[in-house]
Amino acid sequence: QMADPFLYDTGERSHYGCLGHEVQIDYLKAYICRPSFSTDKAVIVVHDVFGWRFPDIRYIVDLIAGHGYITICPDFFKGTEPWKSTDHWPDFPDWMKNHDPMKVDREADVVLKYLKEQCGAKKIGIVGFSWGGMAVHHLMLKNPQLTAGVSLYGRIIRDSDERYSLLNPTFFIFGEKDHTISLDQIFLLEDKLKQYCKVPYKIKVYPGQVHGFAQLKPEDMKPDDKPYIEEARRDMIDWIKMFV
Q: Where does the record place the Dienelactone hydrolase domain (predicted)?
């Protein structure tokens, strides 16, 4: 029985006024934010278990758009209920069965098509948090259209050595104090990538940080964590800028 992994209190969050707007893409709703100038570069953001409407994720979408990317967060839960902080933790495994981060290929294709045909995107990266980090790891093994990926504290699935043959550059961000992902797992990931991965990759562990640390809005950060949160975001953006 795991402790509740969401160490940040999702109830006590400041309100966030978004810069983007919602769109309908085929059967998916999505939140999109565009930079102030025209660009052919885009980033897909994959939300965590709290879904595409969660203020922290919209803040991240706006942040990435501010760096010059058409940035979009589709509803990967396809209109079903996201996990809520009031839900009961013992029900989480059942909820996960119906929200499998490895079953995101169709949604990714719909969004890629939209970005290319409707937004004129030529290079597209992807960034995902927690549940979304797992989805990014999966998609970077499967979808060559994604130029680069950043997986933030996605649990590491070790079902086969095929999980390390990444198609394009991928950056894995972890918190040192994340009790859903042990440092042993991270070291193993590093070993396996050294063995099997043919493209640039990077793994970085941020001191003292818990699960979910990198998506906090400025007013919700603790002063001790702030430098690491800002560093993780800079690193995330730098990776995208290097390859997308």
A: 29-242
